[in-house]
Records
---
Amino acid sequence: MNREVVVTGIGVITCSAEGIEDFCQSLMEGRAAIGPVTLFDTSGYPCRLAGEIKSIRKLAALRREEMSDLGRASVFAIVAAQLALEDARFDPLPYSPSRIGVVLGTILADVQFIEEMEILGTRFSDHPMHQVPHYHPAINVARYHNCRGINYTLSAACASGNYAIGFGADIIKAGAADCVLCGGTDALSHLLFTGFNRLRVMAPEKCSAFDKNRKGMVLGEGSCIMVLEEKQAAFRRGAPIYCAVAGYGLTCDAYDLSAPKPDGARAADAMKIALSDARLKVTDINYINAHGTGTHANDKMECLAYRKVFGDLMRVIPTSSIKPMIGHTMGAAGAIEAAACAVALKYGIIPPTINFETEDPECDINLVPNSCLIRPGLKAALNNSFGFGGSNASVVFTSAEREASS
Amino acid sequence: MSVYITNLSFISRLGTSIEEWVENVEKGQSQPLPDALPLDSFLIEDFRPSLYLGAKGVSYKARSTLFSLAALRLLFDREDPFLPDLREGDIGICFASNAGSIQSIADYARSTMRGGFKATSPMQLAMIMPSITSANLAIRHNVSGFNTTISSGISAGLDILNYSSIFLREKRCRKVLAGGAEEITEITREFFQNVDCLRRSRVTPGEGAAILVLEEGEDASRFRNVFGEIRGYGHAFNTEPKRNSAVKHAMSECMQAALEDAGLGPEEIDCICLNHNGYPRTDRAEAAALETLFPRKTKRTRFKNMIGECYGASGVFQVIGACLDGGKKEYDRLIGKHYLINCFDFESNYSSLVLKG
């Protein structure tokens, strides 16, 4: 069965944007919404900034009684799914609910309940089941939106979102679903905030990915859900098409639990596999959305990996990281950054890497600094995510025009 | 294209070797610990991780991670031509785990919330990731293909086999180490006493790790061992998990989907490995769904009364139970019995798998 998969709807919620139009606008403006954390006490911490979501406009239009006791990551995912379904014009539902799957990536999901247990002195047995294990955002999305197909939660640390998009496309190709809501969700957690501070990889003032004087990353939170459909079915129903999921590659460094393998060899392999899976050459890629956390080790490794794959082309291909704007959203990062690739392919908006000041000879890439580029007619974009445990995931997206002509 | 189980390994209450497992199943020995509290009946009390991993390999690791590392060590200790090519890069790891890192998260939360910023060890951060077990397996044995952890409740143990089968059929890898691991700890005991679901039930948690080696191939004869062939998979998501008729309906859909995927009718199934775990709603619904779908004469079996409810790992243990079914003594060929294996979560996720043993 030769089924191709396209993205027909995107729902995104970050600290700086809600909904795909707002997200496009925020990328064009280079809008950042990083500020002091208010969700928990950070006094005594060297780094106290994050990309925190302060309010959700869409909540007013949703059945809030069904979400009253859910965690933040679940709520973000339900909202993002609603936005994605509206964006894909899923009213009325074009598929049987049993043929609509949900595949989400996350790291700690609704872990705030465990944090609360320590604060309030409650026990696990005091909490309803749906608040605790980390597969509940996917379940809560499916229940709220009546999706009765495959329902998986994938964890591959910060690469989880890309893992989910790749597998979402695979199950449509395999004929196991007609439509998949896939992406990622994660909420700002006291645990991760403390842990990354203790690892000394957090930036005290701002995230400056690929900058010579970069000081580390800033955490964020949010969710992005993409509606994936089989291409011909999407065309038949006149669905809006952002781009196609052309191919992906997954590898593992098998090196260290928290540090990336310095030579970037397996990260490079993930990109090569993704290109091969998409049947594209390095010269076909017009935009790269980098993992770009702003830590010394990651950015250096990532650029080495790019050199291994693209060689001198890296001085030409526009590359950017949106993490300085929205923070590192953990399990949602790959999916939110995939949305940035989709926006680039559909509208020609290449987002900037804000906070960039000084070139780093170790990061010899064609970075898009501080202001967005407008480049209509892009054909293919590469989205990269690298996570703890050495998880590497690269996804190639191709433009809708290219798909329509094929 | 078929996917075959060409090797397996486990740390379980039924033993750590094929011989022990088969012997204990044939004797019908459930072996709950005699003096244990009900929630600890299936604790693997005599597990000594340093025997498999050495003293240095044990520190900072969760019990479920240690089970998994030990199970993989046992696999590697067998003489098998498969083992050297693990390092070739196109071998993936896919692991099922729902609660494997929850004790680590709770411990970490305790030190963070009570001790504050400086009391938190940076070493512990990686340990709270749900993917920590599969990452540890990859690092220890240099397995550098994909590395996925799936959480979906009790069905996760079968879901990883579907995920892995798709990867093998799509040629995304050549072999997969597919497994599951769970642990009995302070926090998982509380989890199984959860007010919403389990207070009035007789679910007894189990623990352990199980690993299967999966390979794709038209011709099973090229493998040294063939323990089983994955023939079909079905999944259903129930949006109304508290309504009995909806539970039964979704379970029926799930089993029918697996049969359809396998191209088999209900009468062609030789044995059903039940989900039956003591949770009243799903046990009743499973029995009712089977009643309407399958002939009464079809053999039914359950492993959970021997190893406990191993949650994310239970599907992998049930598959091992089918592969090592008492009717089969040699593992170099399939004897052609078809098993339907059910994994139905307390909540919404239901999966069934058809295995040719």
Note: DSSP finds twelve helices and 15 strands in chain A.
---
Amino acid sequence: MDVINYIIKRILQMIPVFIIVTIVIFFMIRMIPGDPAAVMLGSKASPEAIASMREKMGLNQPMWTQFLIFLKDLFHFDLGTSVKYNQSVSSLVASRFLVTAALTAVSTVFSVIISFILGYVGGMKKDKWQDQIIRFASLFGLSAPTFWIGLLLLTVFAVNLHLFPVSGWGDTPLDHIRGLILPGITQALGVSAVMIRNLRNNVIEIKGSDYVEFAKSKGLKNSVISSRHILRNALIPTTTLLALKIAYMLGGSVVIESVFSLPGLGALLVNSINARDYAVVQGVVLTFVIMVMVINLLTDIIYSILDPRVKLS
Amino acid sequence: MKNPENILEVEDLHVEFPYKRKNLKAVNGVSFSMKKGETLGFVGESGCGKSTTAKAVMRLLSETAQIPEGKITYMDQDILALNAEELRKIRGKEIGMIFQDPMTALNPVLTIREQIYEQFIGRKMTKKEKEAEAIRMLEYVGIPDPKARVREYVYQFSGGMRQRAMIAIALAGKPKLLIADEPTTALDVTIQDQVIKLLNRLKEELGMSVLLITHDLGVVSQMCDHVAVMYAGYIVEYADTLTLFARPRHPYTRGLIEAIPGRNKNEQPLQAIPGSTPSLEDLPKGCAFADRCPYCTDRCRQSLPEMWEIEPGHFSRCHFPHVLDDYQGLITL
Amino acid sequence: MKKIIHFIQDNKLFVLGIAIVLFFLLLAAFPGIFTNYDPDAINARDMLQGPSAVHWFGTDNYGRDLYTRVVYATRIDLYIGIGAMIIPFILGTALGLISGYYGGKLDSMIMRIVDIFMAFPYMVLAIAIVAITKAGINALFISMWLVGWKEYTRLVRSETIVVKQQEYVEAAKVLGYGDFRIIIRNVLPNVLSSSIVYGASDIVMCMLSGAAMSYLGLGVQAPMSEWGAIISEGKTYLSQAWWITLFPGLFLMIAGLGFSLIGDGLSDLLRAKRR
């Protein structure tokens, strides 16, 4: 099948980039002042532990051997052990992965709903009051810090109105979803502003295009013109932008999970940096990179479905 | 309709566009009529109002356009008085339109077939019938291998084929009047020829009335029965094609004819018309062509000329149309 | 004079943006004009008081006047916003020009590097870099410089590719002008405008990211006060002293608004000019 071939092809293409990224991550740890083994084990490690870690990381061997050891461990999903939590990094990542993935998914859904609707309305009602309000609101969305909006929403809706849990995740799947709504909306607000503009501009441009005029000259109903001709084409560039924004929101988990006390990868990353738990930092960054690559792959496939001019090649 | 033989009658049409703090007067008192089955050409330079006039017939102008005066009658229907639904019934099915640039005039993400099918909305047709009809349309306009082509996308067609596809789509609605807005301008000369032949076939075989907009007098001579020359929103001359070329009676028309390359066998330099068109927000109170006219007098600047009927069916908007009585026009191009 | 009035009337939002930014620059340069209090003056008696005539924005958990703290923090936030943007702007634009103009292997290499940076989400890379260097305002700059340049490069590169194919560039080449001269005098001016417009929004992005990282404790460190850091201090007292969270964020948003309006206004003006 075409799609499967394409996926395989893309994975092969991504490998060189992935390797370079792993090299970058590999060197990141070694850039921290001090003995890398000591850095990984933390300040409280015994000299014997450090010595055996040095052995394990191959620090006495040439750099490229160290890198190969690093890669080998990677393929065995061995990302080291967390100093702070005393668990393997991979198990830590696995337990928190779902939270961040779910958060990003919910944020994406909200941002799609908000920006597609408002962007479309803004473009179709250019310069009328609906458009003015939407543009006005977008300006604020662009300029407001997400963590601040999150805190405000938290105060109003969770603390004061008790509509949502103050501390994110909870125990049951229903709790999970309830806990993701406020953070999802918060992230969506920040990102939607840019997408609304993009879609609005596309809609305006397409509204004045020849093929829309031609469609009108055929006597088509406004609803048909709006959906088949205007929206269909306007969404194409916005989808490309959406892909970038999803990756951005994935990174935004770093801040949002902290604000809403969600036990995800982002919060893990921040805590690990503060605790100097570098094995975890390494593992989490790597995980994020893989997630971004998967997102890009998915968006390219969706893009090729939307735009028949683009072939999966 | 004033005359039952007419398919379209336009009386004293004015179209204005607000711009910054003034009004652009794009169309100023345009009146004309078209008989069934005739091809009427509107010629003039960019911005003279020919496209605006044509679009007004289908009410395809932008939302900002204002029509302060005028009446447009199509087959006993007052176009300007129609509501949205009635207008939709006319568009595509009674009056069709094709556009200038085939690269941008067709939806890039829909197949040709889907775009033809849009014309079938409201007709009871089975899937098979629709496909057969669509293929027939492509065949009629001369697109090879229509069965395969009909499922393709616009980007897969070459320029000339796209223009034909657009004509096929317009035809699928079975209109009686086709408005063609610069259909050949964006095409190579060889392809232009093919499209002109195709459009002429429509007239001969289907009895189609065609309102042609162009700035190319060559195309006019190959296609049109009558010609209206426009300048700064006014019709300045109207006649049947042969008469217009042989006996032009407006200095602007003369200027246009002189500017045709290769017009006469002597190697005379191309004559351009000096000056430029007046800005539409500040039209002079007199003749709009006054500043550029070699025969201009004070009267020309002071008062707007009316349309004089010089000979039956030949009109000129000039105070002194007889200055050109000795002018040798063209018998053939 | 009349021209200025017409300009203001036709570009109200742009002028508003300029006014806002000028106001904040004033706050940053001369905080003393706007407040008499000492931002660091601890006063245990006045802890956590709400907004009042004496303390317009209330006080924080050390009894410091919040309004004064926020005003004095303006300097740091603007410094971060502009400082974090300017290097990527210059370097990124230069790289984009080179990449787009010369094409070929150089272009592939630069774009490869861009791809690698794009594999990391913005915030993740930013705080990872902070992790390696030590947290503090310098770490903020380094991390934002490293994360920010690629957008300029991509943007400028695609514009350069379009401009490169224009006839006036070909004409310059035919006339024998050297590459450097062509790039600087023919390509750059046409490409610079989108870079600048993006730059305005980038200032906002840098301010917000800097504030976010300071909020997480990874950016500006005490005793420097910065809006994000103040908000972070306020989170412990969220239900009791909402003002500590509200006002610095408000300032951030309005400052961001000012720059965004300038960016939009510039974009509109430049588009009108091109027609």
Note: The two ends of chain B are 35 Å apart (CA to CA).
